[in-house]
Model the fold of this input.
Amino acid sequence: MPPVVDQALDAVVFGPIGALSTALADPEAMARKGRLLVSRELRSARAVGRFAVDRVARQVGSMAGQLPSLLADQLDAWLRSAGAGRASSAPRPGGRASASGAERSDGSQPAPGRRPRRTPGPGAGLAIPGYDSLSATQVLPRLASLSPAELEEVRRYEAATRGRRTILNRIAQLQAGSG
Done:
């Protein structure tokens, strides 16, 4: 018979018959072999699982340090959109005060229920349109697409104005090439 036919018969007929006869002759040996194979796979799966959990835990831990700043930025954005703004004397995390922008230059307040008209601020020329009205969580995903010069321009502007640590830290990561 041709070798291909012999190989097919070995795989389909004689191999299974041999395995069955071995299992029937020494079932305890077959069980030990099965346990050994399964326990090796379980050890490997546990090691991979531990690695994955440890990695995610480290990432969550590093993000947790940024949470207060992210929450403060989101609160600022929400208050601005609601027209309330934060009082300029209210301290931000890190001890900085934030101007609400709701007070007019003459010191008067806008009519209740009406938002003050916004004029383009000094951030209007940045590579991110509407930068001054964006929260940190809205700015962060846009940073990766900027050129090094644009990134530096945003960094200087952010440091001189709101000083949001999450944005400044992400820019530093991108400038260092680790982002």
Q: What stands out?
A: Residues 23 and 29 are 8 Å apart (CA to CA). The chain has two domains: 3-64, 67-176. The radius of gyration is 32 Å.
